[in-house]
Design a protein that fits this description.
The structure holds 2 protein chains of 2 kinds.
Chain A lengths: L12 H7 L6 E2 L7 H4 L21 H4 L16 H9 L6 H9 L13 H8 L3 H14 L16 H18 L3 H17 L3 H11 L8 H11 L5 H14 L4 H7 L6 H5 L5 H13 L6 H10 L4 H24 L15 H20 L9 H14 L3 H12 L6 H19 L4 H10 L4 H13 L3 H11 L7 E2 L1 H6 L4 E2 L2 H8 L2 H12 L5 H7 L6 H14 L3 H14 L5 E3 L20 E3 H15 L7 H14 L26 H6 L1 H13 L3 H25 L13 H9 L1 H9 L4 H14 L2
Chain B lengths: L1 H13 L10 E8 L9 H9 L4 E12 L3 E5 L15 H7 L3 E8 L1 H6 L2 H22 L9 E5 L7 H15 L2 E6 L1 H5 L1 H4 L6 E5 L18 H8 L8 E7 L2 E7 L2 E6 L11 E5 L2 E4 L3 E3 L2 E3 L4 E6 L2 H14 L5 E7 L3 H4 L4 H9 L4
Parallel strand pairs in B: 1-2, 1-16, 2-4, 4-5, 5-6, 6-7, 7-8, 8-16
Antiparallel strand pairs in B: 2-3, 9-10, 9-15, 11-12, 12-15, 13-14
Helix pairs in contact in B: 2-3, 5-6, 9-10
The chains are: A mainly alpha, B alpha/beta.
Chain lengths: 762, 357
């Protein structure tokens, strides 16, 4: 709220995320999709056997570097420090008990009657040195922060206190006999030196106390971490980080953050002693990249065909391509991560670029001998997905089937392959076979992404009826806000979370009629019952929608026909007030005696049709008044009228364009203007002519507003001075101009006489 | 320009409405939300004088949740009223010391999403401690010691229980009056979002539309949106005060796409880095690094402001739709010489007066 920078719920971080900016610099409010919410992904890497790299799965939370680590998945691993303690006492204490003693804030080792196997063991065997160490180490934990005293309860005391502690700890190193404890004390000193920003001392202390040997344990590596991050040689620092990344699984995210991939990899590679260390570096640099990284895969594969690192990087590239290709392909949203090089190109070019990358990866994979790879399943699965992107469904299905032959993999992985197999089948045939139907029924309930993709794929293949059935299953819980494909062509983003609105936007009345016809002859089998459960309840909505769509085209005959059909089957069809033929601006609000007259929608249109005939009949003495009534009716069916429901499902204060064919008419009131002008030309009543011209000028004004927003470009002002009808009004009716422009209520007095005259002749 | 349309539409929709209001006592107030300024500048101080500001809601600090440190204060306010410059009119200074300072604390919703009750108890204690300390060190010259604390949090359904627990605790332990901010969403959907257990709430009548969906409308304040939130609501169960915006912000467009909003952009110091396209619209001619992010050459920045007329219309809607008490605090967001320079002094004064016109 007040803090505008903080008002945003976490969803608003999208803006921040998009640009890799920090939250305190950018702001927005309201809700829109987070990158992770819109990212298309059917391949879930957590089900593969690379969970030691779980935090580094392709995901926007990692790359946008908010480092809101709550959003990152991390592997549940045993803490190596706790394991080391367990090992030291020959596993005589439970893991959790050791954990509590070492880490738990609420644990008090000084308390008597502690039921803890670790403490009990230490007491029983008089391990006083260990007890003393633990007490001191726990005390040191409070000093491991650069933010000394956030609540300002004890100001500026940490630095000298750390200095004192370092002195005490150095004494303890001398006094303690246990070598392991000596090392642990030395680590505590290293860490305290770091938080005291005493880097020079830290480096010399580290060199003296942590000699390089082959029997390093986690304490050595933790000390190495604090040593490495103080080094000025960034190449060497990156090299050490790549070693630590392999050795300290529990600290990988922290280590990852310290790697500076702006430093040329060659500066780090020169320190690598063997191929595995080179792989480690290529791997770590690759994790830092959000964009297509084929060259890194090639390097890692060149160094070792059979490495886990290669498999993980391949999995990651597949996730990237899912995002870069399928996210925009199915949803028309931008990919969740936009590489800077692509930030200025449109979605179509982004899709094209991703497809090219997919082809490059495909070309590379085809050259590999799958038998030599660490994960053959993934290899075939990846090829299946890449061939689908390449639009080679047959080869896609072949490789996905190859993958499915392996029955020993996790069933979740098998499921993901089946999801892609379904998409590949739809892409190949444009229809669903039994296997696809089963997959959709089985997996879509918990995977709306998949259901949405199937619906869109069917739509792209021209099977719009089946697509509409599947979309109806998503209902209001749409995984994605749908954005019409056509809307992109027109440059208008039209979002909807309502499948009925999507169908309205996307499909013609003929196509909707085909859907209804199909619903009428649908065979009763399990799949058909499943897919039609929701849509059958909306049957009458669609029958009316067809009539509405004809009305939008001003095809009154067809619209009347379909409204009548709808009214036959709808128990309570819409009722339209008689005032549709009168205008808000002049109808006497106190004259309510006739307001209770209501028509069916078909009756309104029949009346409208009748009035049009009369307005076109030369002999008709009231033709001017009929034209005027028609104008009112058309006006009332626009955004500005009281009967907008005749043409739209929703009305909003937001002046929101749609891609509907009659959008211009809806906002510009062109038909109303045509008939007001016609009435103006036809009438012999001067007052009546003046008000008709005024009403036409209001329509013209609406057109000016609409044109302005439709071509909104920041560069121009809205200009009502160009309203020619307003000029005309001023010129022809100078004495009435002010009154007609001033107050809409005055219109009634201008119409009154003509109205009475008309009614007297009825 | 969308505003013009909104105004037009609003006039059509509301022009026949009749308003009848009872006289209410209006206490003029400002939020002070800057963190880095150590003292008021002369414009800010004179404004407090001219508008006869009674209450100054000063953001003392914000609270965020840190992975390792838990709930910690950040963006602490550096303001210290002892630093009044000598050139200030003594009259202004003396008058200033009569103002009620209400310590205000913004708390990130994550604090309540992820804290347990023990942490919340500790948070209450720490918050009161730090407010007390800041007040004693920086505002000791204020004649009246604070008796109210305002908490600002954009809470959600999932954090409601913890947030309300915190509010109850801080109220019972401190014995101060506790007020909270209230966005329009929890105001309208009060059954779902709950009513905070406090003495009063300040309804924030702004930030109604996403800049993404603004569609040319003013995303800070739009009267039709405001009305849609306030219309047909029963009386809020606790006292309501009103917060209104007078700030501006900057929408950034890149490649014809809206990409975000920035709160601060120094137009004067960046004169060589942009060209004016038209009023309120500039295009960057150089890359600019702002704090920790970058704007690029070609980016278009739209400067979005709230003008006096728009605020007047909003006040009329608030008066018509809200059942206000006999005495309310009207608080403008926010006191900053850069922000308020877009208003004439009498306009700011009239904003408060309009609640009684």
């Amino acid at each position: 709220m007040l803090n505008i920078l903080k008002i945003m719920s976490y969803k608003t971080f999208i803006i921040v995320l998009i640009l890799s900016f920090r939250a305190n610099s950018l702001l927005a409010c309201w809700y829109y999709l987070l990158p992770e919410e819109k990212r298309f992904s059917l391949i879930k890497p957590e089900y593969y056997s690379y969970n030691d790299f779980l935090s580094f799965n392709y995901n926007s939370n990692l790359f946008y570097q908010l480092y809101d680590e709550d959003n990152l998945k991390t592997e549940n691993i045993y803490d190596p420090n706790i394991l080391l303690w367990q090992k030291k006492i020959n596993f005589k204490a439970k893991y959790q008990d050791v954990y509590d003693v070492i880490y738990s804030d609420s644990f008090d080792i000084n308390q008597s009657n502690i039921h803890n196997s670790f403490v009990e063991y230490l007491l029983k065997y008089n391990k006083n040195e260990i007890i003393e160490y633990i007490k001191y180490a726990r005390n040191c934990n409070d000093f491991n922060s650069n933010y000394d005293d956030p609540w300002e309860r004890n100001e500026h005391i940490l630095i000298p206190r750390r200095g004192e502690m370092i002195k005490v700890l150095k004494n303890k190193i001398h006094n303690v006999k246990d070598k392991d404890l000596k090392k642990r004390y030395a680590f505590l000193i290293t860490r305290l030196m770091y938080y005291n920003n005493d880097f020079a001392q830290l480096q010399s202390f580290y060199q003296e106390n942590f000699k390089i040997n082959d029997n390093k344990d986690i304490i050595d590596y933790w000390a190495l971490y604090f040593y490495a991050i103080t080094l000025k040689d960034n190449g060497y620092k990156n090299y050490l980080m790549s070693i630590l990344f392999q050795k300290c699984k529990d600290k990988r995210l922290a280590i990852f953050k310290k790697v500076d991939n702006q430093i040329p990899i060659q500066n780090a590679l020169k320190f690598a002693r063997n191929n595995q260390e080179k792989i480690n570096l290529w791997f770590l640099y690759s994790l830092k990249k959000s964009s297509f990284s084929l060259s890194y895969l090639e390097k890692v594969n060149e160094l070792n065909h059979n490495s886990r690192e290669f498999s993980f990087l391949l999995l990651r590239e597949i996730n990237k391509l899912e995002d870069q290709y399928f996210t925009p392909y199915f949803t028309h949203y931008e990919p969740s991560i936009i590489h800077q090089d692509l930030s200025y190109i449109g979605i179509r070019l982004k899709i094209k670029s991703a497809k090219l990358n997919a082809n490059k990866l495909l070309f590379f994979l085809k050259k590999l001998n799958s038998k030599r790879l660490e994960n053959r399943y993934l290899y075939h699965q990846a090829l299946g997905i890449l061939y689908l992107i390449a639009d080679s469904s047959e080869l896609s299905l072949f490789h996905l089937n190859q993958a499915l032959k392996n029955k020993s993999v996790n069933k979740e992985i098998t499921k993901q392959t089946r999801l892609y197999k379904t998409l590949a089948f739809i892409n190949q045939n444009g229809i669903l076979n039994n296997e696809a139907k089963i997959n959709i029924m089985t997996f879509s309930e918990n995977n709306l992404t998949f259901l949405f993709a199937c619906a869109k794929m069917l739509e792209y293949k021209g099977n719009f009826i089946e697509s509409m059935y599947l979309l109806s299953k998503i209902k209001e819980d749409m995984y994605y806000s749908m954005r019409s494909y056509k809307s992109l062509l027109k440059g208008i983003d039209h979002y909807t979370t309502n499948y009925k609105e999507y169908i309205d936007l996307r499909y013609s009345q003929t196509q909707i009629q085909s859907l209804l016809n199909n619903m009428n002859v649908l065979k009763k089998n399990k799949y058909n019952l499943w897919k039609s459960t929701e849509i059958v309840n909306d049957y009458t909505y669609f029958t009316r929608l067809i009539a509405v769509k004809y009305l939008r085209e001003n095809n009154l005959n067809q619209s009347i026909r379909y409204f009548k059909l709808h009214e036959k089957i709808q128990a309570k069809p819409n009722k339209i007030n008689k005032l549709i033929f009168f205008n808000n601006f002049y109808s006497n609000p106190l004259n309510s005696d006739k307001d209770s007259i209501h028509y069916n929608e078909s009756e309104v249109l029949e009346l409208l049709k009748k009035y049009i005939i009369k307005s076109n009949t030369n002999k008709e003495v009231n033709k001017d008044y009929y034209s005027f009534l028609i104008g009112n009716c058309y006006y009332n069916m626009t955004y500005y009228g009281r009967n907008w429901q005749m043409k739209r499902e929703n009305w909003s204060y937001d002046y929101t364009f749609t891609i509907l064919k009659d959008d211009a008419e809806y906002f510009q009131c062109n038909l109303a203007k045509f008939y007001y002008l016609k009435a103006y030309r036809q009438t012999k009543d001067k007052k009546f002519a003046a008000v008709c011209l005024r009403l036409a000028s209001i329509c013209e004004r609406n057109k000016i507003i609409d044109n302005y927003y439709r071509n909104f470009d920041f560069y121009s002002e809205i200009n009502f001075d160009n309203n020619q009808l307003d000029f005309q009004l001023k010129k022809k009716f100078p004495e009435d101009y002010k009154e007609l422009k001033g107050d809409c209520m005055s219109f009634y007095t201008y119409i009154k006489e003509r109205k009475l005259n008309f009614e007297s002749k009825q | 320009m969308k505003n013009k349309f909104t105004v037009f539409l609003s006039m059509v929709l509301f022009s026949f409405s009749c308003h009848q209001f009872n006289h209410i006592k209006v206490n003029s107030g400002f939020y002070y939300w800057k963190s880095s300024s150590r003292f008021f500048d002369s414009i800010e101080l004179s404004l407090l004088h001219i508008t006869e500001t009674k209450k100054l809601y000063i953001k003392f600090f914000e609270i965020n949740r840190d992975k390792s440190l838990g709930n910690i204060p950040i963006s602490k306010n550096e303001l210290n009223i002892s630093y009044f410059s000598l050139e200030y009119d003594n009259n202004y200074k003396e008058k200033f010391f009569d103002i009620d300072v209400i310590p205000t604390v913004y708390i990130n919703n994550n604090v309540f999403k992820f804290s347990n009750k023990v942490e919340l108890d500790s948070l209450v204690s720490n918050t009161l401690f730090l407010i007390h300390k800041k007040f004693e060190s920086n505002y000791s010259k204020i004649k009246k010691r604070y008796d109210e604390i305002q908490i600002d949090c954009d809470w959600t359904e999932s954090s409601k229980e913890n947030y309300f627990y915190f509010l109850s605790k801080i109220k019972s332990i401190s014995k101060y009056k506790i007020s909270t901010t209230l966005r329009l969403y929890p105001f309208k959907y009060r059954e779902k979002m709950g009513v905070p257990p406090v003495n009063s709430v300040t309804l924030m009548c702004y930030n109604l539309i996403s800049p993404l969906n603004a569609n040319g409308k003013n995303s800070i304040l739009d009267v039709s949106e405001l009305k849609s939130y306030l219309k047909d609501q029963s009386k809020y169960p606790i006292k309501i005060d009103i917060a209104l915006p007078i700030f501006q912000w900057y929408h950034v467009y890149r490649n014809n796409e809206f990409i975000g909003v920035i709160n601060e952009f120094d137009l004067d110091n960046n004169k060589t880095n942009y060209q004016n396209l038209k009023e309120n619209l500039i295009q960057l001619t150089n890359n600019i690094e702002l704090d920790k992010f970058e704007l690029f050459t070609g980016d278009i920045i739209k400067i979005e402001k709230v003008d006096y007329k728009l605020i007047q219309e909003s006040i009329d809607i608030i008066k018509k739709e809200l059942k206000l008490g006999n005495e309310i605090n009207v608080i403008l967001f926010h006191l900053d010489s850069e922000v308020v320079k877009h208003f004439k002094n009498n306009e700011l004064q009239n904003i408060y007066n309009r609640f009684n016109s």
